[in-house]
Amino acid sequence: MTPDEILRYCLENLEGTVLVNSWGERGIFYNPHNKLKRGVYILTLKEKDGENDQSSNLDRENIYRVNLGVRKNTFIKMFDIIPKRPIKGGIVDMNYDFSITNRIIPHPVYAWMGWICSLNPSENTFEELKPLIQEAYEYAKEKYKKRKL
Q1: Which ranges of the chain would DSSP assign to H, the alpha helix?
Q2: Which residues touch 106 (CB under 8 Å, ≥6 apart)?
Q3: pTM of the entire structure?
Q4: With contact defined as beta carbons under 8 Å apart, do 79 and 106 qualify?
Q5: How many angstroms separate the CA atoms of 84 and 24, rounded?
Q6: Could you list the pLDDT tens digit for every one of the 149 residues in the chain?
């Protein structure tokens, strides 16, 4: 899977979504009719390390990370606990190699918010991600409805 294939899948299959480029990454937001400045996060695609996020070693050649927020109960079912929020510039206290590819793992920085990620998912791993992307989409729609437009 390529980053563009993943983004295209989201835009073609998740109604009311838009692609936003910001902070050195591309993101899929729920924002029907562009009523919000950006919208509500569904998924981001990060292709390089950032100042406060270097644990995945994304500066390796052809490495990218797909990030998405699921409900906390789903996160707990997958990883047993919600970790504490790390200090600024730190990573969550979970026993994972955050640079491993082709696995669904907790997000190294935002796991405390229920975010998960996968570095360079294969087609098979992307198939495992699809229902989680759908959940992130439904969750974003719920958050969107709570916003005052």
Answers
A1: 3-13, 72-79, 123-146
A2: 75, 79, 83, 92, 94, 96, 115, 116, 117
A3: 0.94
A4: yes
A5: 26
A6: 999 999 999 999 999 999 999 877 999 999 998 998 889 999 999 999 887 788 999 999 999 999 999 999 999 999 999 999 999 889 999 999 999 999 999 999 999 999 999 999 999 999 999 999 999 999 999 999 998 66
